[in-house]
Predict the 3D structure of the following.
Amino acid sequence: MSFDYDYFVIGAGSGGVRSARIAAGHGAKVAIAEEYRVGGTCVIRGCVPKKLLVIGAHFAEDLEDARRYGWTIKDKSFDWPTLRDNVLADVDRLNANYQSTLDSHKVETHRGRATIAGPNQISINGKQVTARHILVATGARPMVPDVPGADHGITSNEIFHLEKLPASAIICGAGYIANEFAGILHELGVEVTLVVRSDTLLRGWDRSLADRLLAISTEKGIHFRLNTKPQRIEKLDDGSIRMHCEGGKALEADMLLWAIGREPNSSGLGLEALGIELKANGAIPVDAASHTKLPWLHAVGDVTDRVQLTPVAIREGHALADTLFGSTEWTVDYDLIPSAVFSHPPMASVGMTESEARNTLGNIKIFTSDFRPMKNVFSKRNERSLYKLVVDASTDRLVGAHMIGPDAPEILQALAIAVKAGLTKAQVDQTIALHPTMAEELVLMR
Ligand code: NAP
């Protein structure tokens, strides 16, 4: 049977673009469909613009601390449109890079919404095309809760485009996005209140790190309303928002940001008609090799809701393309994936938390370093870092590493190699400290 394409990818985000490019490199005839902009969440409205905002926001502290180092900064002021527009311009640059990568690999780009019309069949812009293999890489979108007036709030999709910064903001949620934007907005002078439905930030993270972030954020002036659930949202005459809460006092602010998780973009693709039963949260079920139950249909990235992280989607897309069109079959190793929250200060983690290790291994050793980085001591900034190593006492192997403090994600990426390689605590201890650094604490924990 002949097809128009060997591979048709729906969704030009991180996973889709990588998979299309690798498949094309193996000689496949590839097309990709994108209804919005090439690059997907990470590039267009996620990791990349967020990280630029994190960097931009942190100058607030750096400029303040610079005085202790002898710098006089006159007329210090911040202009949101400048940061916003420069960030959006960088997004345009990356968007163009992604497009040129696709073009240079001879991947045909279709602008528009593609749906699956039948076995090996795609409908795009009123045309039907066929493909030997179809990949769904449509990502996920921010969730908005089912409470009256919820649409008065915005999500992380809209926040990069704000006309002006609000004077105050409510952020609902306590995960990655909530804590990252709490930091960004607070540094930029917005009065921020996080509304948290439990008494815990960053569920799944090592408790001591999450508690440290809560303490530092509170000290900085970010407000927290714990054990608080939104009930109804009202828009007031002056354009501000009132959040009525279950069993608690209402809150008012100029802006409301929902940061309560992301749900797979799986509806309206024609999957149900093909007999694909979506999971309760809308995720497409796939096996370890990213195949659905139909031999010609595959899915990678956030739409499968395995691990919602860009590098994971990229690897899934790469493995699938190699498996379908190359000479090597491989699958993604999901063990020991590092991740970071770009809060102020940032935190990063790999492997088991202390409580996970206690529950699964029983016999563990915990090493911590709780210190004030030199820069903070000198600046008289009362902000302590916390590093924690989790060690399996029976083998002496590192099974987890957790850090909060300046540059924690940069440091942890290197440490994650040691954890992934199964190094022992004794091997870490054999390494001579690189002095004076914050990272030297890792080899000095006894
Ligand atoms: P998230 O990290 O899963 O956190 C969701 C938060 O919202 C949790 O605190 C959760 O509370 C709360 N929540 C859920 N439903 C709620 C409701 N109906 N009402 C009130 N609160 C509710 O989600 P996210 O911050 O939206 O980010 C989505 C995903 O994107 C992340 O899981 C991560 O994989 C990825 N991401 C990664 C990065 C990064 O790598 N730096 C940055 C951004 C996003 P509970 O704890 O009680 O469930």
Notes: The radius of gyration is 24 Å. The chain has three domains: 5-142+263-325, 150-260, 345-443. The domain at 5-142+263-325 is CATH 3.50.50.60 (FAD/NAD(P)-binding domain).
